[in-house]
Amino acid sequence: MKKYIFTLLLPLTLFANLSVAVSYPYIGALTKVIGGDKVDTVVLAKGNWDPHFVVPKPSLITKIRDADALIMNGGQLEIGWLPPLIDRGANPKIAINAKTFLDLSQHVELLQKPLSVDRSGGDVHPDGNPHFHLDPNNILVLAGVIKEFLISIDSSNSAVYEKNYTEFSGMWNEKLGLWKVKMAQKRGVKIVQYHDVMAYFNHAYGLTSIATIEPLPGIPPSSKHTIELIELIKKENPCCILHDVYHSTKTAEFISEKSGIKVISMPHDIGALESIEDLVSLFDYLTSAIK
Amino acid sequence: MKKIVLSTALCATLALAGEGGGSFDQSKFIPDISLIVDTSFVHRNVSNSDLDNNAPTSNYGNYGTFKEFNRDNGFNLNYGELALHSNVDQAFVLDAVFHFSAGSVEIEEAYFTTKTLPYRLQIKGGKFKSDFGRLNSHHHHTWDFVDAPLVYNGFLSPEGLNAPGVQLQWLAPTPWYMRVGFEAMQKGNGGTFANDFDKKDGEALYIGYLKNSFDIKDASVLLGVSYVNGLSNVKDADTSTQLYKGSSEIYGADLSVKNYFDSYSYISWQSEFLYRNMKSDDKLLFDDKKQSGYYTQLVYQMDESWKTGLRYEGFLQDSNGVKTTADASYKTSEFAQIRLQYSHDEAFKLRNENKAIDEIILQLTFTIGAHGAHSF
Q1: What pLDDT does residue B2 have?
Q2: In whole angstroms, what is the distance from residue A204 CA to residue A113 CA?
Q3: If you count residue pairs, one on A and one on B, with CB atoms under 8 Å apart, how many are there?
Q4: FRET label pair with B106: which of A26, A155, A193, B231, CA 20 to 30 Å apart?
């Protein structure tokens, strides 16, 4: 009898997909590309809200409760919301240091790592700027990391993951070439941001971020800082304010009114704007944003 | 004495953290340490002695009340709370909260939680805040108002259900969020289930609850029911006079709806109802009591900095009236909050006469160090 049950159950386990929970939509997209039809992905955060301030709703616990693996951005981007979910998820597979847990920030070089941290300097990330996925060159690195990760937990499908990765990297390399050409004449252009979300994009294409609308990381705009910023814009003449989609553009519009600077909405992830449906459209948009 | 040992231990750890390198350097293993300081200025129309000299059974009809925070008219240093958190190893997490207040140190919480149990089970043990109700497990610095609802103060004591014990929780494999929990706790935490100074002789509290949550678009709905039973052996702290002897049970029901507009602003409506049934051991000495109380509150978080709230609460039996509270708070960052609260409390009785309390509290709360994110 037992044998029968075993043979009945066997095909089920063989064809059961790996269920991978990921923190942000871009990680979900990469996991889907590499995992293909062998992996089901569950994305926790919404692409059009602030990645620092995801709400740790109980419904998200339900999403990670039965996951076989968890992939997160890291670099303390999830510090305000993922730990209480992991604590309450009662799922040993998503525990930090489990071999089914992946912190992507451990595999890329982080920019802007502060030499010393103090909260009088705002809500700084001690490990460096965590928005590394906005350098399209890093996307390729992350795809490789996710491929290795999936193979390490599901070696039986390694051929599928290798094939998907090869296809993706071929396509992506082509795109990288196109975006490079498009952005070549933007090198050296000065920009202003709300929060330094675009640091890696700027790094990749040689844009210079001269200031942020928030006076310190994570601290809402103040009138004193805004007035200083208007003076700086008049002096330095940056091309535009690259604004994230989730903060109010009220202050940016005020600055624009006083200095004539353009405000450009910059999606940071898939779903940030309705037209951003995948990784290619994200970078197509970003590389066309500065006219 | 406790204080000295603790602060010496803390200094030693901090000194260790400062040392770099060395063959036996362990500074990387330092736990998350944070300090929360809560201070306030209080102005109310009732003197401190009027509040203190009321027998606990007379203040709110048959409900006891003791002020834990904001006790004095004028300036108050409510507490300094030292919280530590770290993985013990691959199997356990350890959390501890040391509550320093004027003249005393208390281990508010010190508990382990398991990490690797199968079947979505988790066990917690040590001294911890019970998950009874919606509010009981939340720390003071995360509350939406300066003070706890009257029914919490009266039924569960200002510290809430917080005692040595053990907890088993199970996350059900349902399409929505459902958590079932059972707890057994040493009694003696004030409120319904006797005072701290009582001798404990294995008379446990038994607690059970069921919590559910689901989303409707950007709104999260939380629905919970809770139950606790145990012996009530209540004595007056100063005179040791027996105030009540019997067995009691409390039923709780809570409903919260929190709707997010964007990453920074939300409106939330939260209500709880508690029903207490006390059965006297000796009807000649003490009456059976059936009592219930409620609160309902609306909180609006406008943006990253501003938040405001309105609370309405009272009791259904032996009630003198209701209490209304309004507050507004401003955060300079996630780590500092200034709050102004006004309340008008008609549920209070002074020497058996109804006496409305009007109270204004200006509260400042600070957090430094590595403090973990709060759950929903």
Answers
A1: 47
A2: 17
A3: 87
A4: B231
